[in-house]
Amino acid sequence: MRCGVEMQRRLIRRALMSEVQPPLLLLTDLDGSLLDHHDYSPGPARAWLTRLRARGAWIVPNTSKTAAELAPLMKSLGLAGQPWIAENGGVVALPAHWLAAYPLQEASAPDEHGLCRVAVATPRNTILEVLETLATEFSFEGFAAMSVERICALTGLAPEEGALAACRDASEPLVWNDTPERLEAFKARLTANDLRLTRGGRFHHVTGLTDKGVAARYLIARYRLCERTRPWTLGFGDGANDLPLLAAVDNGVLIPGVGDTSQRDCELAAFPGLEDERRCYRASAPGPAGWVEGLSHWLANGFTHHDYATRS
């Protein structure tokens, strides 16, 4: 057993240190993936974040959390200054130097970590206006109608964290209280208003015409343009809303979800590439343990530069 663990470590070290390996750009879901679904701890993944950052890897959270939630979380994870994607692709934060040569009019001024925020989706106020018209036809409860205490009860967050979760820019989480059969009609009404409904680990999320995959492709394209190199992209996720992310990267890790995963399993049919084990590894453990399992798999079995360069 000990011999096997040591061999795995050597393989991972070799993959990380390889001179021909392209730079690693890792995009990861947080709750239920990098962070434990129940206590929000990175557990065994924390040590890997330190190792990967020390070797120059980029680690980009791609989450349904808000920008307000990410600020203290990035610091606690040792990722302050790394790009991020919030609210299921609704808001993206890019390094200021990426915008120096290729400015974006809609970008904010750099924050204390040198990141500029770019809103790439429908504003929350517009989403709430549509939901208000649908509230007479369907039964649901959105964050805008909840107290901080109610949000904390549903998420297990502390009060100050629940308040940050309520500070949204481009999405609205909701609890579906209507029948499962009515959900498709609700989605159709949202689609008619240029909105989307996706499922996360705890809630349904209403967004504009974006998702984690759209935002991931946008960020990867900016990376290639500004860093002038093609990275090896890895993606990690456990929910239905993570499937577009896993489809947008070179290699993915699908982590077992906690609770009802029926919608995710149903939506997998729309992403046939994720059935290919050469592209997407299915972890056996949930949360951070599965995250580490998947990372270890790809670092030990990743592409050489030649193999990588032949991919589209």
Give the rounded overall mean pLDDT: 90
The succession of helices and strands, N to C, reads HEHEHEEHEHEHHEHEEHEHEHEHH
Q: Low-confidence segments, ≥5 residues, pLDDT <50?
A: 304-312
Structural class: alpha/beta
CATH architecture designation of the domain at 124-207: 2-Layer Sandwich
- Helix content range: 40-55%
What spatial form do the alpha-carbon principal axes imply? globular
Describe the biggest sheet? 5 strands, parallel
Total number of β-strand segments?
Answer: 12
Strand content: 15-25%
CATH fold name of the domain at 124-207, please?
Threonyl-tRNA Synthetase, Chain A, domain 2
Rg is: 19 Å
Distance between the termini: 39 Å
* Quaternary structure annotation: single chain
Strand ordering within the main sheet: 2-1-10-11-12
CATH superfamily of the domain at 124-207: Putative mannosyl-3-phosphoglycerate phosphatase, domain 2
CATH domain class of the domain at 124-207: Alpha Beta
What's the tally of helices?
13
GO biological process, one term: mannosylglycerate biosynthetic process
Protein name: HAD-IIB family hydrolase
Keywords: Hydrolase, Magnesium, Metal-binding
InterPro entries: HAD-like_sf, HAD-SF-IIB-MPGP, HAD-SF_hydro_IIB, HAD_sf
